[in-house]
Amino acid sequence: MxxxxxxxxxxxxxxKAFLDALTVDPxxxxxxxxxxxxxxxxxxxxxxxxxxxxxMWLLRALEIDRTAPVLSLLGAAHHGLGEIGxxxxxxxxxxxxxxxxxxxxxxxxVLEANEGNDAEAEGLLRRAMELDPHRIAAHxxxxxxxxxxxxxxEAESEFRRCIELDPxxxxxxxxxxxxxxxxxxxxxxxxxxxxxIAIRPGEEPAIQLFANYLESLFRTEEAAQWRSxxxxxxx
Length: 235
What we know:
CATH superfamily of the domain at 162-235: Tetratricopeptide repeat domain
Structural class: mainly alpha
Low-confidence stretches: 1-9
Mean pLDDT: 90
CATH class of the domain at 162-235: Mainly Alpha
Helix content: over 70%
Largest sheet: none
Distance between the termini: 45 Å
CATH topology of the domain at 162-235: Serine Threonine Protein Phosphatase 5, Tetratricopeptide repeat
């Protein structure tokens, strides 16, 4: 009942069902983990409050049964609360229990990349991709990391893989345009910028980046024409 209600975003009904399960068995770790997952996902109410409740229930569940899924969810709760050190510890503990847990590799890779630990981040993201080759976010984050270090052909390959998986992925077209532009492949870069703009017409970042790119090629009149589209946007 609780899982069905959660899938329907009936948060209060799901919460009641899981709490009812705990009245029957106060040591039911599955219900505690489900409550933690529920609060982590809730879109109603106070976000910080929901994250704290998620953390509380997940910690209780782990006292009874230390499992990889619950540890990974705890990492997400810590991350949402800005407790980065604790989040990393939770993801590492997840991997120790289950090395094949893709979500933990990916999430820890993102945190390491955010802190500038790029070599470790690259290894984690590559492992996440091995475990789930179809995860666009892993390819995209690795592409950004490779681009940062001037490994543009490798970055291009990752962004193209994202687009293969989802041709309508706006950010992948933008990132690909950027890395093609750095390689001075002007026609290809322009095509990717235009594709991103077509996916989200009027979206400011794509238009602004494209205008900047045109300006770098001394196509100042065209750049000005694109920027004028931003000025004409309704409030």
